[in-house]
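S1.2 Input.
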Amino acid sequence: MRFFIAMFSHETNTFSTIPTDRRQFEARDLRYGGELLEVYRGTGTCLGGMIDAAGARGVTLVPSLAAAASPAGRVTKDLYEEVKARLVADLRGAGPLDGVLLDLHGAMVPEGLEDGEGDLLRAVRSVVGDALPLAVTLDFHANLTADIVRGATLVHGYKTYPHVDMAERGREATERVVDVVVGRIRPVTAFRQPPLLPPLGNQGTARGPMRRLGDMAAEMERAPRVVSISIFAGFPLADIHDAGLSVYVCTDGDPGLAERLADQLASAAWAARREFVHTALPVPDAVRQALEIDGRPVVLADMADNTGGGAAGDGTELLRELLRVGARAATVACLWDPEAARACCRAGVGATVTLPVGGKVDDRHGAPVEVTGRVRTLSDGRFVHKGPMFRGLEGRLGPTAVLDASDVKIILISNRWQTLDPEMIRFVGIDPLAEKILVVKSTIHYRAAFEPLAHTILEVDAAGLSSSNLGRFTFKNVRRPIFPLDDL
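S1.3 Output.
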């Protein structure tokens, strides 16, 4: 068997002013041909799982490209069309195929479009036709659309948030395509989209409503004719018509069963809708509590300045408060400020510098803070992920500096990336276990790796474009009425 394989992934925050252009993709991932297989083989990613499963099943993979960028604003039209054209051209030149494997996100919003994945799947189907088995892996935060469901033979969404099952989903997608090719299953699907826009802060699958929904789906999947079930919490900060929670059920030739199960899950999600509303501590209260706690480290989750949700990553409110109260043994990880990082590189290790830090992207993440500190560490920003997410994959933060302001250590990075792995702190010479306070710019992903080492975690309601307080945003395109924007 020969399967075509590619990745095109982006989570678009339509409120962000940072355009997701070629430079943003090159900073994260833009690879072609066989390099895709070399880089992702054995990693804890969907592509890694696809590659491993293909090897185990004797499937030959025809690699096209891997394109991904950190969440930000709309994907620029030229980049989107370029990547789509390259993928389609590779597909035309791939020769005879038995299946297609696509690692997508489900919340990509290119300029001029609302549903990048749906548009991409139409282009793929125009080449391969409607009969060829095509499996798609989608992020837990996918805003599933009818066009995605129509374009894919099979959809496999992450079941965990933090996303620690990406490789498993990639393996599953590959194995199910093999099952379709040999005639072992005949997929039929059902899709539901209740009027529910869950904020990010209570979407975690370890507890709360998503835990119960996941357990319910897992029990359903034990039924003989159920192929797979995916519950997508959705990405609420993509202001498009289809944003929000959705349910996808695939059965083996039993459409009635798929419809019944989809209805049950959608009803259960709707019944739990008020549990998705999220609250967190104001900045002064969070810092005060962290200093009062007897134990370390105390993790302050800067949830609203999460680059993984499209925020700038240069928010300053927590940093400003730590400096104001004279905190010690504190680390802010990681603050995106290429200008400040370059200034530290020019000054050199050991130099004392005074410079404005953060708050440079927009007026939604706090104003710049003038900091006087010593350049403690410089790095090229390369490290290897060792936590549960992206294990084995290289991280590239670009020129990186640690600026030490009276023992408040600010990790300045040049490429936007969410602080989801303690290795992002260790690789610059800081021991996270020795710190009293760790400011971690992440919403929930950090929990997979930081929860085991944290004495206490405090969720903070600071400024930023990944806030779970949806009342801070002006929505224009999402379908209405929808909870919690409307009191349903």
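S1.4 Remarks. Residues 2-276 form a domain with the Rossmann fold fold (CATH 3.40.50.2300).
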